[in-house]
Amino acid sequence: MMRRYNKLRRESALDAGCSSSDTLNSEQISKGRGPALAIDDWGTGYIMNVEFDEYWKPIGSNADKFKSQLGVIARDEKKVPLTYERWTDVPKAIKIDIWKEVKDNTNVPEEYKVSCLQEVCSRWRDWKCRVKKNWYSSWSNDSDRLANPPPFVAVDQWKTLVSYWGLRKVQERAQKNCDSRKQAEMLSRTGRTLYAIVRDKMKKKGEDVNCMTMFMKTRKKKNGSIGDEDKGSVKLLSNE
Predict the structure, then answer these.
(1) 72 lies in which domain range?
(2) Whole-structure pTM value
(3) Could you tell me if 180 and 87 lie in one domain?
(4) What is the mean pLDDT of residues 202-229?
(5) DSSP class of 41
(6) Which residues does the annotated region (Disordered) include (predicted)?
(7) Collapsing DSSP states into helix, strand and coil, what is residue 164?
């Protein structure tokens, strides 16, 4: 079932004018990494083994696949509609169903429930931001926005989102949040690799793990240098 789902996602992306490797691309949208696809064995009865560190962050060989699957769940319009204003507005019944799905397909313990829902919340919010950036903000008027809905977002949900994002108070709040993020933004260069995996590998190699070493490891460029945008933060961490 998951293999067919992934195939349909690729076909739908192509029908929408996107490349099969990046479902967010179009002539009007800047290129970037597309959303991950579902795990083929998810929902087949296969139980995935997931390991965790002391902070309940996935590690081990299945960590990346598992976190990607949580993202797939968060982006499923039928499971978690984008029309809720905040994660706290999402009904408890939906969150229960999410946790049941994760439990039915993995060996995760009950103690992971809070961290699991927090991760899905983060992925859901990120997806909502990407949808707004790549489809709402790419057009200058609602007519074009409604005529060019994003793939994998139901038309009725898209109409609600376009109307909501067009409200003056919502636009003002969004601009304020955008300005705040620009001031605090620091570039991570780990790609899809999880911080927990980076930390786990450092520990296994006997490397010292602290705020400074983690910051340096996740911000270094391929040539080993630190970008100018991060040097101020390195100085602050050095003084702590």
Answers:
(1) 33-184
(2) 0.66
(3) yes
(4) 67
(5) T
(6) 221-240
(7) helix
